[in-house]
Amino acid sequence: MIKVHNLKKQIASVNALDGLSFSAENGQITGLLGPNGAGKTTCLRTVFGLLQADQGYAEIDGVKVHEDPMAAKQQLGLFPDPCGLYERLTPREYIQFYAQLSGMANSQAQTATDKVIEQLKMADIADRRCQGFSQGQRMKTALAQAIVHQPRNIILDEPTRGLDVMSTRVLRELLLMLKAQGHCVLFSSHVMQEVAALCDHVVVMAKGKVVAQGTPQQLCEQTGKASLEEAFIALIGSDEGIAA
Amino acid sequence: MMKQITILFKKELLDAYRDKRSVMAGLYYAFGAPIVMCLLFSVLLQQMASPEALKITISGAERAPNLVQYLDSVDISHSDDAEAKSIQLEIDAAFQQDMATGRSATVVIVADKSDSKLIKSVRRLETALLRYNSEVAGLRLVARGIDPGLMRALDVQTQDQATPDAKGGLFLGIVTLSIIIAIFYSAMNLGIDTSAGERERNSLALLLSHPISSVQIVLAKVAAIAAFSILGLALVLVVSKFAYAMVAWEQLGFSITLDLRFILVSLLIGIPIALMSASMLIFVSFMAKSFKEAQSYVTMVLMVPVGLSMMTSYDIATETIQWLPIAAQQYAMIELIKGNALPLAPLGLASGLTLALFALFTYLSSRMLKSEKVVFGL
Amino acid sequence: MIKKRGHLRTQIRQSAIALGLLSSAGSYAASPDTAGLTPCYTKGLADRLMCGSVEQPLSANNSEKISIHFAVIPAIKLVHPTEAIMAFAGGPGQSAIEVAAVFARVLRYAREERDIILVDQRGTGKSTLLQCDMDPLEAQFAFNDDALPIFEYSREETQKCKSKLNTDLSHFTTVAAASDFEAVRKALGYQKLHLFGASYGTRIAQEYMRRYPQAVASATLDGVVPMQQSLVAIGDAIDDSLQAIFSDCANKANCRGQYPQLEQQYQMLLTQLEAQPASVQVPHPRTHNTIPLVLTQSKVRSAIRMALYSHTSRALVPLAISEAAKGNYLPLVGLMGSDSGFGSLAMGMHSAIVCAEDWPLLTEQARARFSASYFGRMMIESLDASCPVWQVEAVGKDFYQPLSTDIPTLLLSGGLDPATPPGWAELAMVKMKNARHLVAEQATHGVAAQSCADKLVAEFINHTEPKELDAGCLEKTAVRRYFMNPNGPAVASQEP
């Protein structure tokens, strides 16, 4: 479970986060929806302890991130934006490295790596160096890294960007599977369809604040619109920075 | 604690090993520097040496046949070549008259003593004339029934405590300079790549999002960079051992021999320097906003150790400087080549200071990794 | 005709046959302990040497020990750690360590890559020095050595020295010493040696080659003493070397002009002094006190003989003879007073060698032949007197066999050598299968010190191919022009 409580963060005189509070439950897929510049990435970075909030806190499985970052991060998997691959390593080496770093023993990490490679159907690229990978291949590798150690909480920052249709389907299936396994999945996106198709719970963000939250259906009802897209536009007052 | 460092250290080594270009750039120095130095030294030695048969221009040779014959016996002779013009020996018109009547007979050496190529030759000519002078003067005394030993009122005996290995002077400084610098340069690219580069490629944030502390990250990276520094050091030592053995130092009356003991002790001395160098590289790279900026900062900062090393090389270091890191270690290496005892006190202190700097840079770097400005290059 | 002390000294100096190298004597500072090597220095050489010693039996059937001292001149760059150059000093009786500076200079190119070992041969230097007492210069000047037959006087002086030394000289011969050099080589751990022998040093070098051929990589013999010939043969060499000056002077217009009839002048001078030695007062060469000089023909001959060794002093010979003929003995006094380089010969050890090795070779036939020269006669007489006193055991007949070897060997001779002329080297090499004899026509004793031979020696040691050497540079002469007056070789056109 991931919880943020009244997060405030000022970056260069802009209030990137302005009293942000929401929670993402286990066994649910929570979508963080907002236009570009709404503060999604800042929010996620704060959850990872990469940024210090000026006020408020983030909590993972009840552990406050700023108090015990190590314990908090132990239960997290991150799919970052941008991917942050090591160009000179192969996906297998890369995934295994992070598995070990997240606390798995060597042999355990190896097995988990093999498994996730199979799961994501990336055996064909697993032993090639990342240099020159397509965006889809990069995303898959990064995703594998995020879930290899089976964290209870998985955060994905814009996970579908640049994925081809097939990969997007794989990703969806994967997220649904994680959800079924009881993981807490939190992802940020500005792609409406994706959010609508996957999310159990949607948090709509704008200008560092939560504008509205609930199931996609609740949001539609709340705004009286037929589609999530229209509901969204109604909520934030414009469709700028949102993709259908 | 150690586990995380080890995992990251191994990854860094693998990553660095795959980065052939920057690794090789560093190791090229370690491999190439001694060889280039040796070629330069060889050319220099050749220029400094006086030619076996020294040709000069002698004017008025007919006035002093005995002197000319003497010079010829030590391979200094007259030639009309243009080359011989650079050193002229003018025998005074009154030479014979003065010689026969016991006056000092004048000979004039005309040469440009600022020309470093000529110095040895001019000195050789001067020495030959001095020898001739004392020979004739000695015979003048014998002809008068006097022991020429009387001219030596003092019998000055010098007992030179230096071994041939200790007489290399400036050359020893330059040799050790090139070895010390290898520690810094062989891992320079790697150091920048693993810090500023990692940040620029966005992998730093992901790494920091994992359960590994910033100190652990810095230590693992420092260890990896230092390992390459030591590799560079080992390479430069081995190449130097063979390369410098080829230079004909013995023509100048000394030799530079890098034995196994020197190599092992230098590696040991080099470890604190490598750690310090690695932590400094990381610190400076993180200070910079971009990879490019890091490169220029690092180049500037490296002037400091190089400067300290140069001061030792050219023997202009003051007493105080000789206790400082780099300078003291290099001094110890020079003493080792000379076959003298290791100066343990300065070496110990300087190594301690070096390690303290390593600790400081490591601490500062890990502090910086907690700053979002540094991590995201804001 | 009265005999006096000091006579023997002069005679012994005359029999100091093949002096190795002209150099001033020196003592080395450190006293090395028997265990390891200790740094040490010798006179005239600033470089730090390493000194040490080995214990050797005095003789095969005797438990007494003798310390053999040695010094190592370290290579500039030790390229060949398993090899070294071993240098043998002359005399016999010279200490190799004392003349380290000379060896360091002569072998400076060879030293660039190899250590040089100098061993004080038993009886010399620090290895149980066998030295007889030496008269001061004043006594030598005042003594009339023509007053009595040499024979009696030599015997008397020898007996004094014998009772002083109180040792059996038979343990100090070339044969006895050879094993010491091998012991030093083994103690220092060198596998191969390049020998460099000068003058008498060539004899001990040849003996070493004969006994330990497996340890020798090459040998350079400079001023060669053949095994099959007595050193007494030196008399002819002295005469020839002086004769070369007479002919040379007669052939050169300026010398002929200044010193006409030089040879006749010399003979006349000797004849006069033989009839009546000249008694004069002269200033002491160093103190300048006025001291008496009884100038005999043998003193003149000895002074001139010693002047023949170096080009520098040869330049004074015509002047010294000409002036003496005119009654000015100062140039001769200068020559007699400045040859201190020869003072360091260990005369006890010298006698051990010549009495065991050279005296027994004097057959009737040899005596007749060598007596043709003045110095030959004097030496025979001197040895006949002293050797029966010393009672040194004669060396075995095999010792006189010419050395048969295929070790690469370079022999060097000087055409003007007053001690070991080129003919001696030819005799020495009759059974050498890989040898080359180079003659520097214009060189005197010790070729390597006065020509480009120092470079040739280094090249030879590096390649050990005697046939490959380019000896062209030996033609270069180090000969000086004769002094035309006490100021130098120049003649003034007119006094200003």
UniProtKB/TrEMBL annotation, chain A:
It comes from the Bacteria. Pfam families: ABC_tran (PF00005). PROSITE patterns: ABC_TRANSPORTER_2. Coiled coil: none annotated. Signal peptide: none annotated. Keywords: ATP-binding, Nodulation, Nucleotide-binding, Transport. InterPro entries: AAA+_ATPase (IPR003593), ABC_transporter-like_ATP-bd (IPR003439), ABC_transporter_ATP-binding (IPR050763), P-loop_NTPase (IPR027417). Residues 2-232 form the ABC transporter domain. One of its GO terms (molecular function) is ATP hydrolysis activity. Belongs to the ABC transporter superfamily. PANTHER family: ABC TRANSPORTER ATP-BINDING PROTEIN, ABC TRANSPORTER ATP-BINDING PROTEIN NATA. This is ABC transporter. It comes from Pseudoalteromonas rubra.
UniProtKB/TrEMBL annotation, chain B:
It is a multi-pass membrane protein. It is found in: Membrane. Its main location: membrane. One of its GO terms (molecular function) is ABC-type transporter activity. The chain crosses the membrane at residues 27-45, 170-192, 218-240, 260-284, 296-314, 344-364. Keywords: Membrane, Transmembrane, Transmembrane helix. InterPro entries: ABC2_TM. Residues 30-365 form the ABC-2 type transporter transmembrane domain. It comes from the Bacteria. One of its GO terms (cellular component) is membrane. This is Transporter.
